[in-house]
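Final report, closing paragraph on structural work. Over the funding period we assembled a curated collection of sequence-structure pairs, and we close with a single example.
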Amino acid sequence: MAGLTDPDRRPDWEYLVQCESRLREIEQMVDWAVKYLPDSAEYWCANRFIGHVKAIMDPFVGMGRGYPVEEAKNPADREIKVKTLDAFLAEHDDDQFLRPATTVQESLLRSSEAYDAVSSHLYAKLPHCRGCSCL
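Its predicted structure, as stored:
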């Protein structure tokens, strides 16, 4: 991982793949979907597809990366009461489940900039929408 320790490095696709190689597998999934999307398909929504891709990306890049799956709270278990925002945030502090980042790479992978870089890279690979409500 030589060269991956610069805390001021801006995240780009190749740099992020060096930090987290499983992102390449997500890219391969997108490439496969694009390859097998028929040119004659009347309906295709790139925005809807990228939403599914982002759900797959979540454990690997962005803010969701630091939450261990086995320990993450189920949002459906939360009891909803009307209260002030401060009271709600104090009671539901999700950061208590966040593992600390111990490397520069881990800090970078958890950033919103890294998430945006990965999702932009993958979205750019998709064909434009056709026949969907986005148009």
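The first helix runs from residue 13 to 19. The mean pLDDT is 81. We thank the funder for supporting this effort.
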